[in-house]
Amino acid sequence: METAKFLTGRQKAWEELRIKLRVFFHYTARFLKGEFKISHYIRILKRLLYFLSKMKENKYVKIGRLTKVNLYVPFFPSKAFFTACDKVTVFDEKMPAVSVLISVTSACRFNCEHCYQKYDKGKDVDIEVLTQTVRQLQDKGIAFFNIEGGEPFLVFDRLLQVCNAIDERSEILINSTGLGMTPERLKILRRSKNLMGIMFSLHTDSPEKMNAFMGHDEAWLSMVKGTAMCRAEKIPVMFNTCLLPESFKDGTFERILDIQKNLGGCLVQLIKPKTAGGWLHGNIARFTAEDAALVKEKVNLYNQAKTHADFPFVYCMLKEEEPEMFGCTAGGTDRFYINAKGDLQPCEFLNFSFGNIATDDFDTIYYNMRSEFHIPGQCLLCDKFSSEIYKKYQENASAHLPLKPELSEEIYAHWNRGEPTEFYEKLSQL
Hints:
Strand order of the largest sheet: 10-9-8-7-6-5-4-11-12
Largest sheet: 9 strands, mixed
Helix content: 25-40%
Low-confidence stretches: none
Number of helices: 16
Order of helices and strands: EHHEEHEHEHEHEHHEHEHEHEEHHHHH
């Protein structure tokens, strides 16, 4: 795979024109085959144009003939990209989710302070159940599989079986610390043409601080070695970075971006710290309006300024969650989570369960979850209801998270998810 190029300004405009033309011809051909009636065909094109308009502040990542416009949108013009586009071809029911995060194992030698699986306990779900669920999800329109652990390379046979169950209708991204990764294993995974990246954690510019934060003396070294192996095998390198407000004021953010650039990163997922898992207690610094404005200013600089044209694309969760953007996409609006022991969760940061794929009928629990999240809301549920989740976790002497379905329902049965998300409301009307 070729070296990543970053598109802004005029180059990005030309690439958008290429995307629009390819999408137009794709759906026009399907319309002429009789797949859509004229009114739906026009609405599909309008919906896709509206979505693309929301990418105006993004830096595009181009690798060879492939282009990524958003972290959770597969590379254009892959089959997976058009699987994601097909989300907007649904008119008579709730549009399908396009992205799922799946944990293939709880096995991990790290002890990250903020881990949203910190109190998840239990045996890894049977791999046959998991692969069957993956196939079902592809048939339901999932275009983007984000696969993680624990550390997935510690149980490589499970990781490989899940990847092999995913065909080219969907894109694969693997989250890893680098531990357990080998060139031989990457060569095997590379046979899957839809594996489009491996994402590493990097939360500080200091090896010592990172090792302490992740609870392992080789956290930094594993990450560095892992990125080098991926580059050697021509697998795109990406990063996730979780920073508290102070890191955007003392130069840490800039130093981390320098490191990620030097390690060959093409995309950085900037995660907003969440009151989940290890931080479910809520005792973490919160972003004020001024903090959020500073983050957006810095992200826009890296994504749009010519002076930062050769830095990775920064996908900023704080911006994506804004009411005028996508808000909360949990619960199968766009994404959801299946943990290592098979619990179906609305989001990895929302520590409650709608059921378990090992013991419950998947279609039933999936439908129940999506029904509860039928109308996308602006409320960031993981922040607003973390205290209630934590209280029930303590009061019921729960040995683990997520909360069992009956306890979870006590929370979501009466919650207020806020106003409908502007983007999805308009999308459904187009």
